[in-house]
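> call design_seq(struct)
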């Protein structure tokens, strides 16, 4: 939406001080003509944006200007600050704080009632990775890293395009030079991350490649009975109406999983508080898995 893009442009100007039209066009995936129209719209709204030519030129907000809060509603500004504060949790720059000093007002106070922490116990390492990838995306330079998956380890060289937060984790989305295709890499699984000197020309990203996880279907149905004390887990994952309470108080549920392996991992997390009852091959797979686990502890 245009309003979201205008807010994003203001945030970029507050953060970067000076940016170029091509940078904004790439960032918001629109044409330079659209960015020029957006700049005109912001100027008409009373925000003094100046443009300069030359090697160090670009687009910037006039020095010393404090953003007029009448440009946006209080609700809109609250949403902006809440979003910026969440970004601050994984950034070295206190973007929300810097913008708050220029804007002020009740919206800043209201945003403090929301706490969105996108970091984790490995925040220092995560922030360093995100900052490096952001710079590589901005400079259109490739990155390299060592990556670990269930199939093994390997070194990767990719063109980075997006930093993605999804499924409660952080990823870098880019074009893998080895696979010759777009891939999503979990930041927690990579190390030895480096920004190279290898420049690349951003290639168009097919829309279907941005539909992360759309190829994953939960069509492998498994029935199981859970102990009553596991209700909180079922509610948390699938909702309060996703199971049936049996006469003895136990909970029956039939859900879909992407693979049998993901189903096994899910059920093992419940220990002896769950029993898989269908389909037969899944029951057998659980039995074999538990048997093999038991063998590990035999003296």
């Amino acid at each position: 939406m245009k309003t979201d893009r205008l807010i994003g442009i203001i945030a970029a100007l507050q953060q970067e001080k000076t940016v170029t039209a091509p940078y904004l066009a790439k960032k918001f995936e629109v044409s330079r003509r659209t960015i020029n129209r957006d700049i005109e719209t912001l100027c008409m709204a009373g925000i003094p944006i100046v443009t300069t030519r030359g090697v160090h030129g670009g687009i910037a907000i006039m020095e010393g200007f404090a953003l007029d809060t009448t440009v946006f509603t209080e609700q809109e500004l609250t949403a902006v600050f809440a979003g910026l504060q969440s970004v601050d949790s994984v950034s070295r720059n206190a973007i929300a704080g810097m913008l708050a000093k220029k804007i002020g007002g009740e919206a800043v106070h209201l945003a403090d009632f929301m706490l969105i922490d996108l970091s984790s116990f490995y925040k220092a390492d995560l922030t360093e990775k995100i900052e490096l990838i952001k710079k590589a995306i901005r400079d259109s330079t490739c990155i390299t890293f060592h990556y670990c998956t269930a199939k093994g380890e390997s070194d990767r060289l990719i063109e980075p395009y997006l930093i993605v937060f999804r499924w409660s984790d952080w990823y870098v989305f880019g074009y893998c030079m080895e696979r010759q295709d777009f891939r999503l890499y979990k930041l927690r699984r990579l190390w030895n991350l480096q920004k190279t000197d290898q420049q690349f020309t951003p290639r168009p990203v097919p829309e279907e490649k941005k539909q992360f996880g759309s190829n994953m279907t939960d069509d492998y149905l498994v029935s199981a009975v859970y102990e009553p004390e596991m209700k909180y887990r079922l509610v948390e994952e699938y909702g309060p109406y996703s199971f049936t309470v049996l006469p003895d108080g136990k909970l029956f549920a039939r859900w879909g999983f992407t693979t049998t392996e993901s189903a096994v991992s899910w059920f093992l997390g419940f220990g002896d508080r769950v029993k898989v009852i269908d389909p037969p091959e899944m029951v057998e797979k659980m039995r074999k898995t538990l048997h093999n686990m038991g063998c590990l502890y035999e003296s």
